[in-house]
Amino acid sequence: MFLNIDRKEKTNLALIDNEGNRITYGELAVLMDTIGEKVQSRSLVFQLCKNTAGSVAGYLGFIEHEAVPVTLNSKIDPELLGNLLDIYTPAYIWCPVEETERFGYEKVFETLGYALLKTGNDIYPLNDMLQLCMTTSGSTGSPKLVRYKKGNLEANAKNVAAAFGWTENERAVCDLGMQYTMGLNVINTHLYVGAVLLLTTYNLMSGEFWKYVREEKGTNFTGVPFSYEIMKRLHFERMDLPDLHTLSQGGGKLTDARFEELAKYAADNGKRFIASFGTTETSARLACLPAELALTKTGSIGRAIPEGELFLVNENGDVLTDKVAEGEMCYKGPNVTMGYAVCREDLMKGDEFGGVYRTGDLARRDEDGCYYVTGRLSRFLKLLSYRVSLDQCERLIAQEFGIECACAGTDKRMNIYVTDDSKQKEIVDFITTKTGLFKNQFKVIKVPEIIRNDTGKIRYAMMDQMYGEL
Q1: Alpha carbon 20 to chain centroid distance?
Q2: Is-above-0.85 flag for pTM?
Q3: CATH of 380-467, one of 3.40.50.1580, 1.10.10.10, 3.40.50.300, 3.30.300.30
Q4: 23-123 is classed in which CATH architecture?
Q5: pLDDT of 170-216, one tens digit each?
Q6: Integer angstrom CA distances of residue 17 from 5, 96, 147, 350
Q7: Are 140 and 177 in contact (CB under 8 A)?
Q8: Cβ distance 19 to 51 under 8 Å?
Q9: Distance separating alpha carbons of residues 467 and 447, to the nearest angstrom
Q10: N or C of the chain: less Cβ packing under 10 Å?
Q11: In sequence order, which residues have a C-beta less than 8 Å from that of residue 121 and are 6 or more positions away?
């Protein structure tokens, strides 16, 4: 069975959610067959995801029975969903029961708060190796999907579980949405080792969330940088969570100050802090920093996971062989996906990546072989002919002033978006000193909020579109 679900101790718990469901591995194996048998093999299924037992059981059942799920947020905008339905014409929709009224399709099955709808669309050819489709983290509402091939998910689950030392004794807090590559990775890696998933739809800021984690004895938590900023506001470090032994980070770069705070908190309290890095195109995690290096390698993503290889290339694509180097970060491994799709015909395409993925991230490698992501190739402006990193400016401002900000703009001007403009002059003075450019190349713009997608990543294009002319 997928992820060896049928080889686990049948009476051991697999899934717990805050809707009251408690599913053993034996029950999960039966559910996978029951749900999977309701769909035709090699059909496309739109799955509207929640962090509940019904959502996870459907995902596993579809893959086990050779259907191909497309994972989407259950709260996706109706117009965006309609666009995707028109483009990809799935044969089925798996969605929360309360969402079925959005559609006029026949309901053919229901369990654990989820319903299977049959759309009546024709089943069309899919590549034989295609197993899953996910939206990229930056393409909210876009028809662009990442195509996973058979073997990607299980290879990543096995190797990440080994890198993190997960065992069947873990009780993983599943806060990140399973339609998000990092959220799905938490699910896959823990099911692979026979652990328990603590699925939750509670808001991270609510008392219910932390009560649930405490009562269900959560042992590890994976968050994105925005998660850890929220936790800082909640004074997480003061909470009594005796069973929580591992904090893991992915989905973007923490400020150095927050990285150091988390590393020190973990060291002082007998816990582990593990920074990691991944992309949708590599089935989530491709690297992690061992917990014992967290205090001495601030900001590092560490080294490649087992069976993977990280390397750097220059602007000509030549591999940089020097021990210490900086260039575009690339990855090779069995978790590299097949490529992209922007229409249903693309779902017949073969493997376009060939096991190697150029991440588009700039990174440096230190003398110990640890990597540090320094920015995006596309996140640069050319101001007065000088190349200026938006990511670096954003980090410098956030660290210097302790504020939330977003840097975007054009080659004519950098826009620095803040929610508090009390330090407007100081910010401009600071960034002009750091870059050596003129003050008129920068504008600090106060906004009601820093706009983010549902995984906490800043939507820079929308920020410029909405506020760039202020």
Answers
A1: 26
A2: yes
A3: 3.30.300.30
A4: 3-Layer(aba) Sandwich (3.40)
A5: 999 999 999 999 999 999 999 999 999 999 999 999 999 999 999 99
A6: 18, 14, 29, 37
A7: no
A8: no
A9: 7
A10: C
A11: 89, 90, 91
> Could you give the CA distance from residue 207 to residue 214 in angstroms, rounded to a whole number?
11
Residue 252: the pLDDT is: 80
Cβ(130)–Cβ(108) under 8 Å? no
- What span, in angstroms and rounded, lies between the C-alpha atoms of 37 and 61? 8
Contact 381, 431 (CB under 8 A): no
Residues 59-111: pLDDT tens digits? Answer: 999 999 999 999 999 988 888 899 999 999 999 999 999 999 989 999 999 99
**In terms of Cα–Cα distance, which of 218, 219, 225 is closest to 202?**
218
Question: Computed over its alpha carbons, how large is the radius of gyration of the chain?
Answer: 22
Please tell me the distance from the alpha carbon of residue 232 to that of residue 326, in angstroms, as a whole number.
Answer: 32
